[in-house]
# Entry
Amino acid sequence: DVKVTQSSRYLVKRTGEKVFLECVQDMDHENMFWYRQDPGLGLRLIYFSYDVKMKEKGDIPEGYSVSREKKERFSLILESASTNQTSMYLCASSRQIKPNQPQHFGDGTRLSIL
Amino acid sequence: AQKVTQAQTEISVVEKEDVTLDCVYETRDTTYYLFWYKQPPSGELVFLIRRNSFDEQNEISGRYSWNFQKSTSSFNFTITASQVVDSAVYFCALKKIGGGSEKLVFGKGTKLTVNP
# Structure
């Protein structure tokens, strides 16, 4: 079974802090994704990566950056956290060779910015 | 542009009732994949099914069934004899085939509550 592990289930940070959300997958997947989920808005793609050191902006990249130094790890960075970034963050991974393969998701990190 | 619409924001049923979750999509692509995911209260999105645009056969898996109709751009999901454990948020998603795009476009989700 694919395992996507997010480092924290719950996180509380302060406005202006630099925040790191970590995601690790154990299935050698090429693609990794970061989404945020908000009530009434569904899942929105922040950034994704299709290879080490490669990244592409999703639909809402403002205020975020990402890092992919190793294939299995994809980090989401909030450079200077703001209260409007309070949300549920979901990481996902998928195989690149087979486009019909689903994305596999982690348990999510519920982030509160005070 | 691609778009997925799940018009039902919340549905509440009593156990053993059948329930259908609607999904309507928009795309200019002729080849694409459609997916359904389940998100229980624990938070993790669980993959349920995928369907490619060439295959309009309906599918049944236990109490779950899916009705894909290309003519109406719909991919509806029916749960027969619902159970309390079916309570979750369900997401429909669309993915383009080819062109290097790996992105999924999600609907906003339908929250299903099954009451005992």
User: Anything to note?
Assistant: Residues 30 and 53 of chain B are 7 Å apart (CA to CA).
